[in-house]
Every structure is written in structure tokens, then in C-alpha cells.
User: Fold these one by one.
Assistant:
Number 1:
Amino acid sequence: MANKAEKDKGIFTTLHGAVDSVKASIQNVNVPDIKAPDIKVPNQVKELFKKKPRKDTQDSAAEPLTIKAISTRNAIKVIYYLMSADGKIFHSEEDKFDAIGTELDPDFIENKEQIVNECKVQMEKVIDPEDYYDVLQDGVELALSSSVQTEDTSITPKLLVWNLLTIAYSDESYDESERKLLKYIVRKLNIDKDIFLEMESSILTLIDLERELNWIKTADRPYLTIENMANELADRKNVIFESVKDLIAL
């Protein structure tokens, strides 16, 4: 039995031969010169024959879907994926995770185990070690894209990114893989890169101020001097926090 390719070839050859035969048979036929009647085509009919734009062309020109808010549960998942980006979760990161999770979700303690287990199921999809980051990114993408509008969909993209930065810096080690994943999230949420860079700069300044404040408290200086310096640093921290709040509210 001939295979499909041979069948197709045979059909094509037969059709080609038939066309040649027809062409040869009509070469000597005299066709009378008939003038086509002048038919006026209504505009409505003309519109039907206009070439319609292809659907994929229309889709490509459409604006990308903008994520305006993320559900609490999915935001917590994204935070967990970021914590896992460097391959290990530090105690300080977990403490910060619990603090942010409790702030975002009043029922966080009851929901935490299930949320973490769902993240771990995604992370078990790693086949080879080099797949680890890609699997995390897939998990983040799924969490963001499946964040449908619900009653608790109140976490804005910029607020999520700020929380992610506080997690990333909680162990005072901003790993390269963490920053790579954060930049992906910033692009996915369509956040202006200047806003993200300003957030990074702000949190670095806050960390430096906190270190300086801790050092002053241990310095061998008069109490009033230490108190004045501590108050000045606290005021500077408040200014930065207000600036970040304004960024998030933009």
C-alpha cells in the first residue's frame, strides 16, 4: 500500500495532468467577445468583499493585559517563590514571610501550610538542577496570571514588589537569582523601571540607617547626644517611608 506522501504525489500529478489536458483542449476554441454588463454594486455588498484584517494581526496590536491587583493568596505564593530563589530559606526570611503574610491575610496561620505545599508541588517539577529558576518563574507567572478578581484582590503590583524587596533584603543578602526573579515580576506587572530602582535605593538607605542607629545605641557617648542622633535618624527613616508610600500610591 502506498504511503500518504506517495498518494498525495499521485493526486497532485493527476490534477496537474488534467489541467494541462484542459488547457490544450481549449487552445483552439474561439471565444466570442462578450462585454460584461455594467452592474452597479451597492456599497453594502462592496463592504462584504473588503479584505478583513487577520485575527492574529488584531490581537498583536491589542494592548497587553494589565494586572491591577493580585489576590492575597497568590501574592503570598509569589513571596514564597522569591524566598526560595537562592535555593535556601533563611530564618530571618521566614520570620519576615510570616509577618507580611499575617499582615496581608488575617487567616494566614491557618492557610500557610496549604499555600506553601502548593508552591512545593510546583517546585517539584524541576527535572535537572539548571531548571530550578525556570520552574520558579513558571510558578510566579501562574500565580500572577491566575489572580482573578475576588473580594481580597487588593494588593497592588507596587505594594507586592515593595514587600518582595523587604523579603529579599531581610537576610542582608540580595542574591542575584532573587533580583533576576524580581526584575521578571516588575516586567510582568508592567511597573516602570525607574520606580523599581527608586524602591531598591530606598530600601538600601533604610538598611544603612538602621545599621547606623544600632551602632549609635552602643556608642560610648552622652545619653543626650545619642538620643538626638537617634531621633535624627528616625526622622530620616520616616521621610523615606513616606516617599515609598507615595511611590506605591502613584
Number 2:
Amino acid sequence: MASIVDIAPPRPAPTPSFRKIRAASRAFELLFTVLFVFFILLAIFSLWILLFYQGDIISIGPRGGMISTSGHPPPDFIPFRYWRLGQKLVYVPDVIVRALPSIFLFWNLQRLFRLYSQGEVFTDRTARLIQAMGVCLVADAALPFLCHLVLSATGYEIDKMWAHMAAVQELVLGAVVFVIALVMQAGREIEEDREGFV
């Protein structure tokens, strides 16, 4: 009868730094869960305003959206109750598409910090989540321009303020985050090769 001997080294006890990561990650997991739910509710509320709001406090114009506490927006701003049905329906996918990157970003952050709180730090799963976050940031930067092109083609576009320097910064940040995740994966593979070498 053959006997099998496990030559893998025992897992080291968590270091103080590792324990701090796990403790802090629980708080961040809760924070990003709250933000995930908040951005879903914000998207739903935005759709409700677009389709059903009948007041004059919230309006939109060529310089973006406006909340007017007096209820009397400037002449070039149009309250949603004056929008034609076709215009509202064209903006429904715009609201949804532009909300999705933020929703998925916070969903991935919540999942990432849940893994951190469970002690899973430098793994393929965490690297993939960080890659997904980079994609979300790039999408959040690029989608306003793409939505602008579509809305311009329909002739219904009102908000002309779609180009922002912050979008360029977000685009670069998203690309950097994506590459950092690739570096983490490569480092993990090197470490696994080193551990497997006898």
C-alpha cells in the first residue's frame, strides 16, 4: 500500500498587517454595499424624474441639469414635464447606460473587499475584480460621448455639456487600474511557480 505525504508547507499565521487588512475591509465592504444600493436607487429615481416628475424645480438645459429652489429655471432650461413623450423615451436608455458603470463599479468593489475580509488578497479572483473595476472606469468616461453621438442623431439632445476633463482623468485611471490588475496576476503566477518548484 502506498502512502501519500503532503510536502506543501503549512500556511503561515496571519501577520498584524494582514489582520488589519481584514478588519478594514469589512468596513469598506459595508460602505461599497451602501453605495451600490444608492446608485441603483439613484438610477431608478432619475428614471422616475424623467418619466413622471411634474414640477419645475428640476430642469435640464444646454449646460446640464439644474435644481432651482425657486421653481423658476432660466429660459433655456426645460422642466421635464414639458418634454415630449418621444424625447423622454429616447433618454430612458441614456439614463440606464450611463448609470451601469457606476453600479457595476461599486458591485465589484463590494465583492473585492468581501474577499479581502475573508483573507483572500493576492488571487486570480481579486485581480479579475480589479480588472473589471478598470473597465467600469473606462466605460464611465467613454459613455457620455457615445450617448451624445446617439442623442445628436435623434435630434432630441438638450444637454450639450458632455465633454469634461474629469472624463479624461477617469479614462486614464481606468486603464492604469486595469494594468495594475495584470501586474498583480503576473506576480501571483510567479509566486505560484516559485512555491511549486522543489
Number 3:
Amino acid sequence: MNRLDREQTPWTGAVAPTARYCGTDSVTDLLKDCSRMGLLDELRATLGLEARPDQRAALRAVRDLVYELAGARNRDLAVDVLIHATGIAEFDQLSLRDYARKHGLSHEGFRKQVAAMQQRLNLPRRAIQQSDAN
């Protein structure tokens, strides 16, 4: 049985563990301990596994964006593709061709990357603006 013995710490008055897990416990053992101590809900919340219903969509969107950008070989390009794919580029001075030129791509190559990201992130496809086509 893996039980943490607790002692009073002199500087905080808080209860602190006197023994640490030595890496010999499995995840199953840790979950059993948390269950026995009534900490499963706190563990889920800490790990972000249990979100409020109104937060689930936002958490998924953030995770999708992080995975998308973290997995990109060229993060600068990925950010510019994301800016264009979401429509934020409409408020910028750069056109699709300007973005493409910035990364050494043709406007068609950049447009294809935008379309692919929109599909991966399940974003609505937006019509290419007239200013983007120039």
C-alpha cells in the first residue's frame, strides 16, 4: 500500500509528504491512491481532463491550434497561414500574394496551405478576396 505519511512543516503549517514516490509506482497505483484519498476529481481538473461544458469547445480549439503550430516545420509560415485561414488577414495590409512572397511560395502554393489548414482545423472556407488575388 502506497500511503503518504504527512508531517507539519514549520514554515507554513501545511501538511507535507515525508516520503516521495520513488518511480516504482505505476499510474494505476497512483490512481488507486488518489481514489482512496478522494482526489480523483481534483486530479482530473488539474490535468485538464474535466472541463465545464461551456469550456470544452474553447479547450479543444486551443489544443488544436497548439498541435497545429507545434507540429509545423516552419512556424513563421504556419502562423501566417493561420492568420490568413481565419480571416484575420483581412484587417492586415498584406495580401495572399504578399504572404506567399514573404515565405518564398507562389500565391497558389500559399492558398493550398491555407485551404489544408482550414480543413484540418474545421474552419469555414472563406472566399479569396479580390485584393488577395492581385
Number 4:
Amino acid sequence: MKTLIRTGIVLGEGIIALVIALTCSIPVMFLLAPAIMALVHTLLWDVLKLDALENGFFRFLKFVILIATFVILTIVVAGPSTAMITDEFFAIDAPYTDIQIISTTGAIAMMVGAFSMSLICMESFGNRYVTVSVPIVGIGFGLLYGLLTYFLGAISAGVSSFFAWAILAFAVVGLINYIRKNKLVYADLDKDAKFQGFGIKRGGGGRKYHKTGRPIDDAMNYIAYKESKYVDLYYNNKLSLEVNVTVYTTEIEFIINGKLYNNNPNMTASQIRDVSVQVNDIMQNAQRRIMASAKRDVQTILDNDPNHYNANIGYNIVVKCGDVR
């Protein structure tokens, strides 16, 4: 039910954007495109957050859909926006209102804002209610950036047009950074995961990720680092997942331990059971994710390095759930 409510809110925001565009005589897609981007993000990030879609193929497919939506919608708005940004567009006697101008000069930026916020949600938030902010952030960011490019129109339409397009570099850098960390997969957090600091703060207990220069070791260490995080539990409790990995000659062993922070000492027996079941589910989901990620990354590395000493036999990967203290 909560998923449907969130989806309905995002859909409603899209309808409001459409009404505003029609009321202010703004090209409809300038405001509607970022709202569509937000709706697709909500479907992928919230509605389709299912255990059945957690394997590598579906995570790759979800990532492709997200990028394809951004590219297609950006192309849709970029053409009309660029065509309108001419010297006549900024003339004193031009028949355009301020909102029409800044929505035109900021049309591409709105898409960049919505797409970037989608990536931030995936990396940083477990709470799916954040999804309702995506269209607001996207459109708001685009209008502010459009105001900047509007002022630059005083120099020339060419300068304004250049900066209207230049914002795409922000999305490209963000996407490259995401792929560098997560590969070509939709690597979103669990719904009960705590805020991770805009993709910067990772790891339960503040652990750090250090590279060794050995591809297999580095890939496995990064998986352990990424899966070590704080998770919110029922009744204001928290769980710190601590994942450690050891790479042997032919075996890779992950151990998932948990540290429970009981912030509600007056829980009933029923509530304690609820938390216990939730912790068990979280540990098992982490176990499945780690196994899938480790198998995928090991195979990719060995395929790209046929001379690796384990290229023919591979690695035996073991993921164990340890203690929760």
C-alpha cells in the first residue's frame, strides 16, 4: 500500500507539472519530461524492488532502462529548447514571460537534476519516500540553472545555449562515477537501509576501503565494504552489518556479522520476535546479494584476464552469516 501511495504522489506531481506547463504556455515536455523520469525511477526503485529481480540480469536491465529513459527524454527536450534559444528569444520586446524563458534555458538541466537525484537515491537512501522529491528537485534545479543561463543570454544566445548544454557534463560525471563503483547494475539499497551520506559514507562502524592492486582482492573488498552499513530496524532499533572477506588461493570467504543497537529497552516479547525475524531476513538478503555480486565480479575479472592463475578453475565462493551481538 505504501508503495502505491508513493507512486501516486509522484504521478500527481507529474500531473501538477503538466497543468503548470499548460497554464503558463510552456512547451509541455519541458516540465513533464523530468516528471516522467521521476516516475520511471519510482517504478524501478520502489515498485520493482523485489527479491525476484535481484539477480544480475534484472539489475542490469533496470539500469539500462533508467539510462535509456534519461537519454530519450533529454533528446526530446533538447531539440525544441536549443531551437528556441536565439537572439530574438532574449530581445527586450520578445513575447515571453520569465518562467517561459528559464524553463526553456533550463529544460536540459531539469532532466539532469531528475536523473542525478535518481542516482543519489539508489546509492544513499533506503527510505523510498525520498522518491517523491525527485520531480521537485529535478524541476527546481533546472529552473535555477535556467535562470543562470537566462542571464548569460545578455552576453549572447550562443553563450546561453552552450551553458544550457554544458550541464550534461554533470550527469555524465555522476554516471561514470556510479558505474566505476557499482558496474552496470542497478545497485540500490534495501528499503530498510539507513541514509548512507550521498554515496560517500559507507560501511558499518566507519570502515574504509583500501585498494591492494590485486583485481580479485579489490573487487571482493569493495563488496564487503559496500555491504557493511547501518540498517534501521523496527521500534527505533538499528543494526550494523559488518562484512569481512578473505581471499585464499582458490576460495573466497565472506562472513557477515551484525551488531544490534537496542534503542527501545521496553519492547514486548512480540516486538522482540519481530526484530529478530527482521534481522534474520536482512542477513539472508545480504548473503544472497554478496554471493551474486561476488560470482559476477570474479567471472568478469577472469574473463578479462585469461592468464590469471585461476582462470581455468575459478574460485569457490562461500558466504556465511556469523554472529549478531
